[in-house]
Every structure is written in structure tokens, then in C-alpha cells.
């Protein structure tokens, strides 16, 4: 890293001497280090009409854009509101810190009465989708699409039946492992769990992290699916392009184009076949409502014309909390978001007869007591007063954290319109811990995390739970169920796995927004392809599932237009 910094200053000095443009310097840096190499091509002339328009270059949209342009006669416009990546976004350890930059929408939820009180303002999943009436979405039917994307060439201790090594998306373990990982895995065995492949046949167990990385660097959806095909003549990618409306004929209900803003200029582009909405679990329902698709009362209150009355805006919510006790492709910077290992476990509230966890434990390489500069707690909304009271007194000690993640929350939130201005944020009401059952499950998860950190394997290093009480919970006996309930409601934060806002379901489901082919009910030429279509949240991380949704959706779209 030192030589990279030194080289950077040499380039900067050269820029001053030859009066070069700073943006040219950064482009040279990316090219030499082969990092953040641009996949966004803004040089092509915008056409008046495309066969397909894809909104959003995330895990769903990038896959769809790649797969549809495999057909050489189909033209695809991919519109992405964000900008190109850079060398900072390539560092896995800094993943969480990107939330505080321009790479994140910066959305904030409304203040909640049931959560965040102490903060600043497997398999069974997909079989259940099928049983809900979503034909084609059982585990056996979606597994080929998981495998299609994956390139797991550097993975070890995996179940080969559930992995492939010829896809676009690179998967590997971090290039660094601290000593606490082995302790964590051994503690899991003592609790009766196996050390397993978390993406294999058995969900329950303890394991090292598998992440979307390549040679220790972050492998984003754009790097995996867009960079290899960016020069296809039938693919036009526009970054910094914010879609404000999907154009739909109110009489025929046929989608005919989109409107978007770029460089403060408004554009309208037509579509021949379909618009594929892949803007994410907040922006997809927001765009649908701005375009006249959504709950009638919400649209009418925003003075928007109702084209299709659909019940969009429902979502499961997934919170999590912590129990705290030179980039060369290896080393600590390759740890994705600071997560070194994980475990999928069951609390006493889960069905003991199946392989279906209700709690995840994530082993962190550090803890909040090491956040002396305040960058991480600022992202989580943790006030300085809480840090100073709970964490600062132990800041001189080394620490690690075990995050408890509620996998199958029962609480539900809403995404609503603030008004008809497309540049205004949507109203987000996550309703975390609205159901007391969610708090009870989190308490049991915390107890399991404490038992892991208190095992004989950790005890030899004198690991000690931080017993300084959280503000607002001081009067409750520390370690009791009421204390942990108080702590959960005060300091648990979101993991960012919001889904289900444009629910997939059969025509008989009154809450469904899209059908099992991901077509928006009542509208022609419009599909939704992202995490918002999930009928319930999966008991695991959502990113791989969204890649799968993109792969399956691509085949559904190809099947519809095969002869055109």
C-alpha cells in the first residue's frame, strides 16, 4: 500500500507540472493498479428506443443486462443512478464505510417506537415460495440459477454439489484469518454444530466466510457481469442517470418507456419489449408508485393518477446487534466488512426437527471499543454519549464482536410516498421489533453468542463480556432477559436485507405485486427483478438470492421473446 500511495503522489505532481486534468490522473491510477476499472460507457449516442430498458445495475439488473445482450439482435439500455467504482470500493474491509459516501442513497427511516431507541434519529425458503403458489421457484428449480452465476475456484471445504467454477461471479474466502476464527469454529462443535459449507446441503453450522471477491478484492455485480461484456454493441450503459418515472399508457396499460435525469437534463426513451425494474427494495416500489402503480389511497394522497391499484410496500425487516467481548490480495483488508466467520443456529423458538435456522452469528474481527475515531459508530447512528459510556472505558483492550442476526423476523414495515416529487426520499417505516416474538428470538441469539465467547476455547485467552450497561437500561439487572430486551430495542441496527416490497405471488394473493414470471399485475411490458419480489425473507444473506433471481428472470424474459 505504501508504494501505491507514493506512486499516487508522483502522479499528482506530474499532473501539476503538465496541467493535466485530475480525473485523467485517477483514470490512470485505476488502469495501472487494475482496480475500479470503469464498466460504465457513456460515449455511445442515446437511441430513441431500445428493445429492453433495465433500471438499476445492482445484483439483479447487471445479470439481466448481461444475459439479454447475449441475443445479438436485442438492444438494451441499462440506467444506473450511481457512479463508477474506485479503488476504495475494491477493499472488502471498507464495505460498511461506503454507506457514508455517495455510493449509498443515504435513506433514513422514520423514528421508531419499538426499536433504535438509543440511536441517532436454505432450501426451505424456496420450497415455501413454491407452496405459496409461485410455480417454478422451488429449491430444485432455482438451484441451477445459483450455480449458473458462480465461479468458486478458490473455495475450500465446500460441498461440490452446490458450487460451480465457470460463472461470472467470483467467490472465495478472505485472504486473512485471525486466530479467533479457529476458536469460533471449535466452540460451535462444542455446542453440537458441525463446521460446514454454509451454501451446501446443510444450513445449520459454523463456517468461514465465503464472499464475492477476486484475488482479495471486492467482486461487485458490475465487475462480474458488466465489465466482461461492456463492449457489446447492443449494450448501452448510462451512469449517474436517475429514473423518475416509468411511462405507461393509462388506457391500454402498456409500458412504452422511461423518463430519467442526467446532468440536470431530462430524457425520455422508448421501449419496444419490456422495462425491467431492478432498483432495489426501496426504489422499486417508490418508482412504481411514482408511475401510478400502488395502493390507491397512497397515490391519491400524493395527487398521482392511479393506473393500477396494487398493494406494494410491505416488507420483512431484519435487524442485528452486537455482543462485544497494504492491500495485496491478502491480509486484514480482504475481510469482507470485517466479518471473518459465521454460524447459522436455531434458538428454542425454531422447529427442532428441520434444518432451518432462525438466528445467524457473525464473528467480527473487531468491536466498537476500537472505533476511537467515530467513523463506524457514525454509520450505525450510535451517539458519542453511548460510546463514551459503554465502549470508551475499554478502548485500550483488544476486542471482538459477535453480531446476532434475526433471520426470520415476523415484524413488517412499509415503504410509502412522501409526495409526487421523484427526487424526494420515500417514507420508510421498518417497524423493527413490532412483534415481541422478534425480541424474544434475539435474546436467545445473544445467549448463544455469549456461550460461544465463554467456551473453553476462548476462555484460555481470558475473554470477558463487556458488562457496562447501555444507556436507558441501567436500572435493569445486567444479563437478565429484560436487560437484553432493553438493549435490543435501544441499540440493534439494520443489516440492510430489506426485501418483499413488490411481493411475488399467484393471482389469488391480494398482496402480490408481480406474478411468478415477475410481471407486474395489470401492466404490460413491465417486470421487477430484485429483492423486492421475495414473498418472504430467506434465512440467510440476500445477495446470492438476488443474483439467482436475475438469472431466472433472464430466462423467463428470453422465453417470452424467443421468436422476436
TrEMBL record:
Cofactors named for this entry: FAD
InterPro entries per record: FAD/NAD-bd_sf (IPR036188), GMC_OxRdtase (IPR012132), GMC_OxRdtase_N (IPR000172), GMC_OxRtase_C (IPR007867)
Keywords: FAD, Flavoprotein, Signal
PROSITE patterns (UniProt xref): GMC_OXRED_2 (PS00624)
Signal peptide (residue range): 1-20
Active site residues per record: 497 (proton donor), 541 (proton acceptor)
Domain of life per record: Eukaryota
Alphabetical list of Gene3D superfamilies matching this protein: FAD/NAD(P)-binding domain, Glucose Oxidase, domain 3
All residue ranges annotated as the Glucose-methanol-choline oxidoreductase N-terminal domain in the record: 280-294
A single MF term (Gene Ontology): oxidoreductase activity, acting on CH-OH group of donors
Binding site for FAD: 243, 531
Family per similarity comment: Belongs to the GMC oxidoreductase family.
Name of this protein: Glucose-methanol-choline oxidoreductase N-terminal domain-containing protein
Amino acid at each position: 500500500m505504501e508504494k501505491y500511495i507514493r506512486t499516487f503522489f508522483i502522479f499528482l505532481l506530474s499532473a501539476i507540472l503538465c496541467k493535466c486534468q485530475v480525473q485523467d490522473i485517477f483514470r490512470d491510477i485505476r488502469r495501472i493498479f487494475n482496480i475500479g476499472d470503469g464498466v460504465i460507457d457513456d460515449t455511445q449516442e442515446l437511441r430513441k428506443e431500445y428493445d429492453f430498458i433495465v433500471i438499476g445495475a445492482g445484483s439483479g439488473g447487471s445479470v439481466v443486462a448481461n444475459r439479454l445482450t447475449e441475443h445479438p439482435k436485442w438492444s438494451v439500455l441499462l440506467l444506473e443512478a450511481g457512479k463508477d467504482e474506485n479503488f476504495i470500493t475494491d477493499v472488502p474491509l471498507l464495505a460498511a464505510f461506503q454507506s457514508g459516501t455517495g455510493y449509498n442513497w443515504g435513506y433514513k427511516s422514520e423514528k421508531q417506537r419499538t426499536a433504535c431507541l438509543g440511536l441517532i434519529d436454505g432450501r426451505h425458503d424456496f420450497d415455501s415460495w413454491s407452496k405459496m403458489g409461485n410455480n417454478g421457484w422451488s429449491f430444485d428449480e432455482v438451484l441451477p440459477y445459483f450455480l449458473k452465476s458462480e465461479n468458486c475456484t478458490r473455495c475450500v471445504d465446500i460441498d461440490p454439489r452446490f458450487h460451480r467454477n465457470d460463472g461470472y461471479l467470483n467467490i472465495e474466502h478472505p485472504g486473512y484469518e485471525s486466530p479467533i476464527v479457529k476458536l469460533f469454529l471449535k466452540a460451535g462443535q462444542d455446542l453440537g454444530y458441525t463446521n460446514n459449507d454454509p451454501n451446501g446441503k446443510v444450513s445449520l453450522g459454523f463456517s468461514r466466510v465465503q464472499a464475492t471477491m477476486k484475488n482479495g478484492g471486492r467482486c461487485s455485480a458490475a465487475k462480474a457481469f458488466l465489465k466482461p461484456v461492456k463492449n457489446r454493441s447492443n449494450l448501452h450503459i448510462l451512469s449517474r442517470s436517475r429514473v423518475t418515472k416509468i411511462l405507461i399508457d393509462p388506457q391500454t396499460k402498456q409500458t412504452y418507456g422511461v423518463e430519467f435525469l442526467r446532468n440536470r437534463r431530462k430524457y425520455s426513451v422508448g421501449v419496444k419489449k419490456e422495462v425491467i425494474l431492478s432498483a432495489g427494495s426501496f426504489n422499486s416500489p417508490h418508482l412504481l408508485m411514482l408511475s401510478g402503480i400502488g395502493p390507491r389511497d397512497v397515490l391519491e394522497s400524493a395527487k398521482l393518477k392511479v393506473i393500477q391499484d396494487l398493494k406494494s410496500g410491505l416488507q420483512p425487516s431484519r435487524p442485528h446487534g452486537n455482543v462485544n467481548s497494504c492491500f495485496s490480495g491478502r491480509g486484514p483488508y480482504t475481510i469482507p466488512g470485517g466479518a471473518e466467520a459465521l454460524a447459522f443456529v436455531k434458538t428454542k423458538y425454531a422447529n427442532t426437527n428441520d434444518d432451518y435456522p432462525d438466528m445467524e452469528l457473525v464473528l467480527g474481527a473487531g468491536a466498537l471499543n476500537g472505533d476511537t475515531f467515530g467513523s463506524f459508530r457514525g454509520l450505525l447512528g450510535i451517539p458519542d454519549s453511548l460510546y463514551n459510556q459503554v465502549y470508551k472505558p475499554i478502548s485500550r483492550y483488544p476486542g471482538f464482536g459477535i453480531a446476532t442476526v434475526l433471520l426470520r423476523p415476523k415484524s413488517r414495515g412499509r415503504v410509502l410516498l412522501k409526495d409526487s416529487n421523484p427526487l424526494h426520499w420515500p417514507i420508510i417505516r421498518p417497524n423493527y421489533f413490532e412483534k415481541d416474538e422478534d425480541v424474544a428470538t434475539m435474546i436467545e441469539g445473544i445467549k448463544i453468542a455469549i456461550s460461544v465467547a465463554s467456551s473453553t476455547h476462548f476462555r484460555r485467552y481470558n475473554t470477558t463480556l463487556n458488562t457496562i450497561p447501555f444507556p436507558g437500561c441501567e436500572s435493569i439487572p445486567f444479563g437478565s432477559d429484560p436487560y437484553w430486551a432493553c438493549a435490543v430495542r435501544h441499540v440493534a441496527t439494520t443489516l440492510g436485507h430489506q426485501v418483499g416490497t413488490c411481493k411475488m405471488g399467484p393471482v389469488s394473493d391480494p398482496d402480490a405485486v408481480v406474478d411468478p414470471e415477475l410481471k407486474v399485475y395489470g401492466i404490460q411490458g413491465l417486470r421487477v427483478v430484485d429483492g423486492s419480489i421475495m414473498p418472504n425473507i430467506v434465512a440467510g444473506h440476500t445477495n446470492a438470492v438476488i443474483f439467482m433471481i436475475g438469472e431466472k428472470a433472464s430466462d423467463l424474459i428470453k422465453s417470452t421473446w424467443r421468436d422476436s
